[in-house]
TrEMBL record:
Pfam families: FMO-like. PROSITE patterns: PROKAR_LIPOPROTEIN. Belongs to the FMO family. This is Flavin-containing monooxygenase. Keywords: FAD, Flavoprotein, NADP, Oxidoreductase. InterPro entries: FAD/NAD-bd_sf, Flavin_mOase, Flavin_mOase-like, FMO-like. GO terms for molecular function: flavin adenine dinucleotide binding; N,N-dimethylaniline monooxygenase activity; NADP binding.
Length: 525
């Protein structure tokens, strides 16, 4: 009897867990290496990244694997501890923990002449270094490995205290303090918003403004009025509609997909202007309509109060400014529009400047084949559909584009393991090289969207097609119109990709799709 082929998986966050599950599904033998003593990646409870009040900024419907639902009474937006509980339940249900080596840091991976992988790791419990040869390698260690360091030269003389956002735990530590938050990411916005509601003396948010940047509450109270032609005022009585219920409806996405790029950008910017309430009509936060033909950036604020706090002066924005100097607790900024200088006193700085990928375990020749750029978190590697490389065999990457969409990382993990186990075949080398050339164009583009893939639903369907689990929606519309309506005109549900194809589970998929559709109709009514 042939032994199962082995897979090394680096990381036990959502990407690593679903990769392990897919490997087992395919009859492979996975080993997951996790440097921490617990699992979950950014959602782990070891307190290295999530702060006490950190919530997901998309609804739990988007953070659902295709064959494992959340409890039906689950919070719409999950606190980090409930995301951890979901991942724990998923790992227990599919018996993944026996395949995870906790406290084991992968130090080096080397591809051998037979295209297998020699993996070397340190075990923190036994204080030993070990190695093993694996048939395949999956990298799923996430985007949040090493904080992206802020250039500290202008702050060399700052005598206040500073931390990075992975060290931030609670606004209670900043009561009565003057705080500068650096970085207009989702984390920076959430931290600034909760600080200004928690007794701090002042909050300033420093970060470069992006072209066509829209601050949109993850739970939107405007959409129903917009759809009824009543303008974009918030309905304060309404409980709101999750933003993913708006942007993840397959019929809407497919109507837009063939538009020329400039026309697509114009339509989306017009819609996002309404969805954001023209950035709450805040004068300092307006976008120039002459630029609407260029890509847009959505800031999922998680909370509607972000721009309200700017309007009320609780958050002072330092967009279009450069940080140029410091002296004691005084920091000097240059207004790039009128060249005036401003000095502001701060006690604390919180850097929410993002993270870099950690690929230190790869040898230089592999990184060169992957065209790895260590400072580019948008397209860090040139991979076919952001997953595989025609230049490096038996290697797959999961979730290295910072997506909150569990459907995407699950489809990637299924595809890679189906390739490893022979369930599906590799695309032709020509097709992969053409795809990589397109991704290189995206990397070099002057204007960038939120994610390098154009749309979450479209990209999901592209990945599903690769693994032969994309339903034939045209035939479905004829033979099963009710199911078609749920799949095409309701919120995108990852269980659609379990209706057909390898390892499908039609009965469970139908149950989940119906539940999603019922929730979609209830929330949108």
């Amino acid at each position: 009897m042939n032994r199962p082929k082995t897979v090394c998986i680096i990381g036990s966050g959502p990407s690593g867990l679903t990769s392990c599950k897919s490997a087992l599904e395919c009859g492979l033998e996975p080993t997951v290496f996790e440097k921490k003593l617990t699992f979950g990646g950014v959602w782990s409870l070891d307190q290295t990244i999530p702060w006490d009040s950190m919530n997901a900024n998309v609804s739990h419907y988007t953070m659902t694997f295709s064959d494992f639902e959340h409890p039906h009474n689950q919070d719409l937006y999950l606190p980090h501890k409930k995301v951890y509980q979901y991942l724990s339940s998923y790992a227990n249900h599919f018996q993944l923990f026996n395949h995870i080596k906790f406290g084991c840091t992968v130090e080096k991976v080397k591809q051998l002449e037979n295209d297998k992988w020699l993996v070397e790791w340190n075990d923190s419990s036994s204080k030993t270094s070990e190695s093993k040869i694996f048939d395949f390698l999956i990298v799923g260690n996430g985007m949040n490995n090493k904080p992206r360091l802020f250039p500290m030269e202008p702050l060399n003389s700052f005598t206040g205290h500073h931390i990075y956002s992975n060290q931030y735990k609670s606004p209670n530590d900043y009561v009565g303090k003057r705080v500068l938050v650096v970085g207009k990411s989702s984390s920076g916005i959430q931290i600034a918003s909760e600080l200004c509601e928690s007794g701090v003396k002042s909050v300033h948010l420093y970060g470069k403004g992006k072209l066509n940047e829209w601050a949109i509450s993850a739970n939107n109270q405007r959409i129903k009025n917009i759809l009824k032609g009543k303008g974009y005022e918030r309905d304060l009585i309404d409980s709101g509609v999750p933003i993913d219920f708006i942007v993840s409806v397959r019929s809407n996405v497919y109507k837009m997909k063939d538009l020329p790029e400039k026309e697509f950008n114009i339509e989306m910017n017009k819609f996002l202007k309404q969805l954001s309430g023209n950035n709450c009509d805040e004068p300092s936060y307006q976008n120039d309509e002459t630029n609407f033909d260029k890509p847009f950036k959505i800031l999922f604020t998680g909370i509607e109060s972000y721009i309200d706090n700017i309007k009320d002066g609780k958050i002072q924005c330092l967009s279009n400014h450069s940080l140029i100097n410091s002296n004691g607790k005084i920091i000097e900024f240059l207004n790039e529009l009128d060249q005036t200088k401003t000095q502001i006193e701060f006690d604390e700085i919180i850097f929410a400047t993002g993270y870099h990928l950690n690929f230190s375990f790869f040898e230089k020749d592999i990184l060169e084949k992957l065209s790895f750029d260590p400072i580019d978190n948008y397209v860090p590697c040139l991979l076919y559909k952001y997953t595989i490389s025609p230049r490096v065999k038996n290697l797959g990457f999961i979730g290295i584009f910072g997506t909150p969409f569990y459907s995407l990382i699950e489809l990637q993990s299924r595809w890679v393991n189906y390739l490893f186990s022979g369930v599906v075949n590799l695309p032709s080398e020509k097709e992969m090289e053409e795809g990589i050339n397109e991704i290189n164009d995206i990397r070099k583009a002057k204007y960038k969207t939120l994610f390098p893939f154009k749309d979450y639903v479209l990209f999901s369907d592209q990945l599903a097609k690769e693994i032969n689990c994309l339903p034939d929606f045209e035939q479905m519309s004829i033979n099963e119109p009710e199911l078609y309506d749920m799949c095409y005109n309701s919120v995108s549900c990852s269980s659609v990709f379990r209706l057909t194809g390898p390892f499908s589970n039609e009965k469970h998929a139908l149950k989940t799709i119906k539940h999603f559709n019922e929730c979609f109709k209830r929330i949108n009514n």
